[in-house]
Design goal:
Helix content is 22%, strand content 36%. A hairpin with a 2-residue loop joins strand 11 and strand 12. The chain is of the alpha+beta class and 630 residues long.
């Protein structure tokens, strides 16, 4: 059957059951999933079969279908692939379905507007345990919620349809892609096995109340590219992150961030040795963290950090740095080794002496001729005098690294933090070099090929006696908005931004319970919707409290927005007329504060036009995608 005939076939089947998304359905049914909880019972598989599925994923998102009584739906994504397969499936009890006398499968469904289709399959297990699939094609071309009811007789497989006697053999429902396909996604809600059908008019979705704030106007010129995205966000990996290795769901959550550098500090690898009578580096822990980095598709960087001024001056520290370079500098799974100066004692040490020492160590490491990059020196901040001294004194390294924290005390106001993030500076430190100027200085002094790395970053550096984050804003909506604003500022100047900690202690992108924190969503939006190498569009904005950047990718113009104030804002984003004529769809995702936490990303589709209006409560973030035809 041709694609066009298949679409006609699809319309014919659902015509009697569906009335232009204005009607819903009320009928006897067996619920398969309403997605009001995390979709943990759904399994993602693909042809790679290495570290779990990398070609597909399923998320719970809110709001769900407007006609559904619940608050959430599932977002199922398939990443582009060639000559492969991927599936998202859930086990179901066919015996119960047969006992209830069900007639078919119904669901609310919303496509991405593309010409692709996804296969909805029912998996049956028959004699001798063999399984077979009975399939129905769902076109993705209609980007609006629609209710679909598919009788079992329309699921085709092995030359026949599912008969009444086959229902008890059903073991799973599955969304699947086979062969070669472009990136695709769909929204799904309220999957049920129905018994009888009748139409009822669905309630109209309630419109949110109007914000009283003055509208903010953003104008984007996609045809005017003024730079490119350099930055990608990674994170530090330590012992707390190792619990992910026994939690496949948490691994999938972390993988969705598409993190870059995985920084592993030698100071986090120390274990007491009774034989030596001192703390020594645990290579077993290091190997476990490298295994975790591989599972998360990250690029490991080992940071060689002295624990005291005495160790920095010792031959033991040189031997450690050289040994790590010999062991790991030639491995394909290690991207970089950093020699690091960032400790509190360094503030009172003589900088020139420390710089000379670290420069000698870096040169000794480079003589080993590793394949990975060698860099440093991890300044506590890009102070003007120290940075200039370092760039003049130290021979050019593969990358220049430093820390960046929004503040280093407990009294900086949120307003001051946000204003400093928009400038790319710490709120409480004097004589800093702005990020754009620092990029130019490194290029001038060390050459075009030297990278610029922020090897530790977060909103505030202060910590509890136990090492946890002391500033609660780090794991609140304020931290999410700060990260979005800061990453936009750093996007064109910095190559790698390493967030302070992946898991727990109030610092993490994942909480102690391995759930996403507010900052997780800022990193997710930045890494996914402003990929490295994308063009940065010329953009004007008439409100300083709204941080924004326009990014042109091969498939869309993405406008990333953060409300850095505690006041609600209504934002109107308009694209140039030259680009507006090409727009076929507008997608909006928002992450909204809910008390101390935030919602999962909403998903909204707007009709194609030259502008989109988005309501953002205080500290909310959003990405608005203008998708051109073709």
């Amino acid at each position: 059957m041709s694609w066009f005939n298949h679409r006609a076939h699809f319309r014919k089947i659902v015509a009697a059951l569906f009335a232009a998304s204005v009607y819903g359905a009320a009928y006897a049914s067996v619920l398969i999933d309403d997605f009001e909880r995390e979709p943990l019972e759904w399994e993602c598989r693909d042809a790679t079969r290495r570290d779990g599925a990398s070609l597909c994923a399923i998320w719970a998102v809110s709001p769900g279908c407007p006609q559904s009584p619940g608050n959430s739906a599932a977002l199922i994504t398939f990443f582009a692939a060639k000559d492969s397969w991927a599936s998202v499936s859930k086990r179901i009890d066919g015996g119960r379905l047969q006992k209830e006398g069900v007639e078919g499968i119904s669901l609310w469904f919303c496509g991405d507007g593309s010409d692709s289709s996804v296969t909805l399959s029912l998996v049956l297990r028959k004699r001798l345990g063999a399984t077979s699939r009975y399939t129905f094609k769902l076109p993705l071309s209609f980007p609006r919620w629609q209710w679909i009811a598919i009788p079992f007789s329309e699921f085709q497989g092995a030359g026949s349809a599912i008969g009444r006697g086959d229902v008890g053999s059903i073991v799973a429902v599955e969304f699947r892609m086979d062969g070669s396909w472009d990136s695709a996604f769909m929204l799904v809600d309220d999957i049920q096995a129905y018994v009888g059908r009748k139409k009822l008019q669905a309630p109209e979705p309630a419109e949110p109340s109007e914000f009283e704030a003055k509208p903010v106007h953003i104008f984007v010129e996609p045809e005017n590219i003024i730079g490119s995205v350099r930055a990608r966000v990674g994170t530090c990996l330590d012992g707390d992150a190792l619990k992910l290795l026994s939690d496949t769901t948490a691994v999938e959550r972390a993988k969705q961030l598409q993190l870059g550098i995985g920084r592993i500090k030698t100071t986090d690898l120390l274990a007491w040795s009774d034989a030596a009578g001192k703390y020594e580096l645990s290579y077993d822990t290091l190997e476990q963290l490298l295994k975790l980095a591989k599972a998360l598709h990250m690029q490991p960087m080992i940071a060689v950090v002295p624990i005291s001024p005495e160790q920095l001056a010792s031959d033991e520290f040189v031997r450690l740095a050289v040994e790590l370079t010999r062991r790991y500098g030639f491995r394909d799974d290690v991207t970089a080794i950093e020699v690091n100066y960032c400790h509190a004692y360094a503030l009172s040490a003589t900088p020139q002496r420390a710089f000379e020492r670290l420069s000698q160590i870096a040169e000794t490491m480079a003589k080993v001729r590793p394949r990975c990059a060698i860099g440093g020196i991890g300044l506590l901040a890009p102070w003007y005098d120290l940075t200039m001294h370092l760039l003049r004194l130290v021979r050019p390294l593969d990358f220049f690294s430093f820390q960046f924290f929004g503040t280093h005390n407990a009294s900086t106001t949120t307003e001051a933090l946000m204003a400093a993030a928009l400038k790319g500076m710490a709120a409480d430190l004097p004589d800093q070099i702005p990020l754009s100027s620092l990029r130019a200085l490194v290029k001038q002094r060390w050459g075009e090929l030297s990278g610029l790395y922020i090897s530790e970053a977060n909103l505030n550096s202060i910590r509890t006696d136990a090492g946890g984050a002391r500033d609660e804003r780090i794991c609140r909506p304020e931290g999410m908005a700060w990260w979005m604003a800061f990453l936009q500022t750093a996007s064109a100047s910095v190559d790698e931004v390493v967030q302070f900690k992946l898991c727990g202690d109030g610092w993490g992108l994942l909480s102690d319970e391995l759930m996403p924190t507010p900052s997780y969503w800022a990193v997710w939006i930045f890494n996914i919707f402003s990929p490295r190498g994308s063009g940065i569009c010329k953009l004007t904005n008439d409100d300083a409290s709204i941080s924004c950047i326009g990014v042109r990718t091969p498939t869309a113009v993405n406008v990333l927005i953060a409300n850095t104030s505690d006041k609600p804002r209504q934002v109107e984003i308009r694209v140039s007329q030259a680009f507006a004529s090409k727009v076929s769809m507008i997608r909006v995702r928002r992450v909204l504060p809910t008390g101390d936490n935030v919602s999962r990303p909403t998903y909204e589709l707007l009709r194609p036009q030259d502008s989109a209006k988005v309501k953002l409560p205080g500290y909310a973030i959003s990405v608005v995608q203008f998708v051109p035809a073709g």
